[in-house]
């Protein structure tokens, strides 16, 4: 046997408790003969054969299989279970091996189940330290889509108060006149109106260390504060009551729907159509947007006729972006279910006058923050909502019966 193969085979079988000290294979090449089989060709020295024969005869009173196992047990060997037949049983019962040991020459074929040489261990995560993967992003809470600001024109202002004049009365006396006759005199009256610039702000404290050690935290805090600021700004634009430091919102200034325009068996889409009619009858600018709660939007979008057909078109078609040709639909959960606001975004009707756009500032100049390694992160904006034509907006209820 080649030395390296003999050493490898002897080491492997020694791990299983088999002592091959008395069985020295000479020039024993090992060749695969199919899965679980090895072919061994060897020449045993006569001295080794006599030693083996003598050792086996010392247990002649035992049955052959037991005798062979007892002889090996005396040497400290243990036996492996290899499925149907273990290693010791195979060595003892193999006829070609016995013939080789008897003659001292020839070839022996051993059929050894491979699983007898394998230690099978199920590897699991139990007791093993697995390093988790940390995703870099921080997942924010669900956030409302802010669309109302995008509808309105933003114009900078340099002061904290915005004033304008509105016509409060106009005597329209224009008429045809005869030659040399006196012309009718007209009269106009005005009123001054104003809106104060309001401040909307929020802030959050944080330690200097955590912002340095937690990558991405500062950016997340900035975006969170900015969103909170913009969300409140949009709420004020729509719902502000004009009291205290609140903006004078669109719903507060809008005109109520004239429910006498509604007939019988009206639907949500009828209400919106009558609101457009009301503005047209009042010579107000044509509305170009309507704000609806998502529940009302989908009630309109999924409305069906008596035959089960969608009134506003198949869901397979383009999404409903407008109503009545020019009315852009804005969905917002800031609008209460069942309510609507319809109006014009024309800058001659409404403007956003911005004294300070939304900004983020960071400072340690607050109380004892400098000595405590704390910082303050502040988000702030200053603006006024200037509604020059309140009559260009109509609000109402989409579900309640007319009074």
What are the key terms here?
single chain, 403 residues, alpha+beta, Major capsid protein gp5 fold, 2 domains, 6-stranded mixed sheet, 4-stranded mixed sheet, 11 helices, 15 strands, 24% strand
Q: Quote the distance from N terminus to C terminus.
A: 109 Å
Low-pLDDT ranges: 22-48, 77-85
* Number of beta-strand segments: 15
Number of helices: 11
Largest sheet: 6 strands, mixed
In order across it, which strands form the biggest sheet?
8-15-12-9-11-10
- Mean pLDDT across all residues, rounded? 81
CATH superfamily membership of the largest domain: Major capsid protein gp5
Shape: elongated
Helicity, as a percent range: 25-40%
Rg from alpha-carbon coordinates: 47 Å
H/E element order: HEEHHHHEHEEEEHHHEHEHEEEEEE
CATH architecture label of the largest domain? 2-Layer Sandwich
CATH topology of the largest domain: Major capsid protein gp5 fold
Strand proportion, as a percent range, falls in 15-25%
Query: What's the number of domains?
Result: 2
CATH class of the largest domain: Alpha Beta
Structural class: alpha+beta
What does this 3D model show about the protein?
This protein is α+β, with helices and mostly antiparallel strands. It has eleven helices and 15 strands. It folds into two domains: 3-115, no CATH class; 148-170 and 188-305 and 317-397, Major capsid protein gp5 (Major capsid protein gp5 fold), CATH 3.30.2400.10. The chain has helices at residues 3-15, 46-57, 64-73, 87-93, 95-103, 148-151, 208-213, 217-239, 250-253, 268-281, 294-301, and strands at 30-32, 37-41, 107-111, 154-156, 161-171, 187-196, 198-207, 255-256, 289-292, 322-323, 327-331, 339-343, 350-363, 374-387, 394-397. The strands form four sheets. A six-stranded mixed sheet has the order 8-15-12-9-11-10. Helix 3 (64-73) crosses helix 4. The longest helix has 23 residues, at 217-239. The model is unreliable at 22-48 and 77-85 (pLDDT under 50).
């Amino acid at each position: 046997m080649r030395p390296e193969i003999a050493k490898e085979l002897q080491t492997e079988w020694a791990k299983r408790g088999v002592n091959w000290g008395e069985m020295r294979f000479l020039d024993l090449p090992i060749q695969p003969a199919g899965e679980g089989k090895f072919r061994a060709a060897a020449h045993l020295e006569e001295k080794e054969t006599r030693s083996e024969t003598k050792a086996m005869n010392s247990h002649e009173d035992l049955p052959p299989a037991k005798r062979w196992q007892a002889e090996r047990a005396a040497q400290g060997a243990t036996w492996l279970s290899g499925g149907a037949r273990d290693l010791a049983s195979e060595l003892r019962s193999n006829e070609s091996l016995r013939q080789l040991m008897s003659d001292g020459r020839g070839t022996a074929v051993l059929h050894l189940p491979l699983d007898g040489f394998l230690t099978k261990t199920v590897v699991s995560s139990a007791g093993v330290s697995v390093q988790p993967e940390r995703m870099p992003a921080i997942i924010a809470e669900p956030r409302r889509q802010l669309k109302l600001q995008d509808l309105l024109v933003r114009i900078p202002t340099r002061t904290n108060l915005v004033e304008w004049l509105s016509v409060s009365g106009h005597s329209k006396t224009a008429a045809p006149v005869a030659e040399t006759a006196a012309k009718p005199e007209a009269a106009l009256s005005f009123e001054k109106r104003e809106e104060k610039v309001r401040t909307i702000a929020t802030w959050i404290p944080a330690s200097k260390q955590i912002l340095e050690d937690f990558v991405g935290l500062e950016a997340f805090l900035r975006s969170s504060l900015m969103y909170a600021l913009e969300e409140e700004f949009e709420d004020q634009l729509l719902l502000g009551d004009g009291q205290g430091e609140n903006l004078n919102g669109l719903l507060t200034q809008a005109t109520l729907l004239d429910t006498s325009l509604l007939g019988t068996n009206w639907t949500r889409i009828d209400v919106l159509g009558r609101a457009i009619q009301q503005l047209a009858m009042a010579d107000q600018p044509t509305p170009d947007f309507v704000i609806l709660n998502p529940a009302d939007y989908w009630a309109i979008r999924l409305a069906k006729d008596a035959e089960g057909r969608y009134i506003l078109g198949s869901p397979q078609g383009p999404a409903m972006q407008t109503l009545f040709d020019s009315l852009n639909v804005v969905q917002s959960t800031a609008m209460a279910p069942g309510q609507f606001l319809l109006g014009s975004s024309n800058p001659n009707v409404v403007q956003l006058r911005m004294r300070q756009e939304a900004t983020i500032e960071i400072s340690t100049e607050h109380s004892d923050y400098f000595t405590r390694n704390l910082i303050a992160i502040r988000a702030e904006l200053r603006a006024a909502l200037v509604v020059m034509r309140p009559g260009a907006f109509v609000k109402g209820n989409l579900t309640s019966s007319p009074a």
